[in-house]
Amino acid sequence: MLNRNPSENILIADTAKLIANSTAEVVYSDSRLSQQSSAVIHSLQHSGLRPVAQAYLRVRLANSNIERFLCLMDAIELLLRLSVFLLLTTLWTQKEYDPELEKKLCRATLGGWLEVLRQLLQKPVSPFGETLAAAWNEPLFTTAKQLISEINETGLMTWKNPARTWLAWLDWFVFLRNKTRGHGLVDDNVIGNLWHLLHETFLDLARNFDILTIKGKFVASDGREVKGWTRFCKKYKFTEKISVNDEKLKRLFFEHEMQSSQRLCLHPFVLLYEESVLVWNSRKMIKKDTIYANSAEYINYNTGNIDMLFTGDAAFHALWENQEVETV
Length: 328
Hints:
By secondary structure, the protein is α+β, with helices and mostly antiparallel strands. It contains 13 helices and nine strands. It folds into two domains: about 5-215, no CATH class; about 215-325, no CATH class.
């Protein structure tokens, strides 16, 4: 056996303990799940929509209850964003363009995204859009109601408005996010084991929205299907100003059995760089003399990191127009 410095032995022991504790927490959380929720995990791993699957993998690899809680919030927020992108681009394929909606999306607030989602849900223009709208108006599952009740009991926040649908539940979720991630007030003594309920709630959401999370798929402009989670995404760092139209970035098209004859282009909202899917977060109109002038933030859900990509001063609809819906 190699002789090590005592401090190295302590570090190795602490690391092993951390891994063991993290694994035990996830195993315990899995043991609480219904058979249906467990099946969702398997589906996300092998055939889930890539950014959703990667966002969920980050939950499973997290090192603490707080980190798991925050990663789950990111994954839920992602479902809201993807719904907006799909409903919005579906509208655009019908030649309906509302510049005011795009202005609202330039804001980074989750409440702003929810406002846009509500507007889009009022005018679904395709069978897929109608099904997605119906999913948001489905009655809440028991776990989501229980989560509201238990967080009320912690004193972290009080929510008295009864949420009967997933769409109404999002109002509560926005309030929760603002109280925790938004204001940096996440105490392990308060959150404690609440991540287990949030875990179950996310899987319920993923199951309720299987039209998006599991049955939908991304196809890259080079023909590759981009699905499931992977632990082998190469780390990268853009060392220069990259445009959303750069050849390094592949376009992504959304396919679903309800619209099997078409691919819905999600450029520039969702992009593929190697194995990493980058999801638009917000538009940044920064001063022209800075490197990130007229850029947009993109979230890499493999890592949770932010990438800045150049968009110019064109409206997102203009960037999308040239990509249109591609017929298979």
